[in-house]
């Protein structure tokens, strides 16, 4: 599994297309993806939006990392970093931000590769 993170509008999706030879057809938008989609797609972008959708729909994220490693170990996962800036006043937004951060932390620990993209340039954080 490879985790690609970075701020909004930093070129993460284009970076993945170029660096890993992924086509648009192989990518799924997390805003539109269902829970099971993550276990079958080549690349899921807007992972943070997938988490938000899951919180709203009551998905159980327990064991997600282990299941991904077992069922979709070659997954390319693209997520915005949400932990910078002002802490949201809204309780749901705080939960969403914290949940996404914690899940990404677990995923990063188990991922083969973690890359942070800034201004379209990837910086390898981890390459096991």
Automatic annotation (TrEMBL):
GO biological process terms held by the UniProt record: cobalamin biosynthetic process
Source species, domain of life: Bacteria
SUPFAM superfamilies: P-loop containing nucleoside triphosphate hydrolases (SSF52540)
Family annotation (InterPro entries): CobU/CobP (IPR003203), P-loop_NTPase (IPR027417)
Keywords of the record: Kinase, Transferase
GO-annotated molecular function: adenosylcobinamide kinase activity; nucleotide binding
This protein's name: Adenosylcobinamide kinase
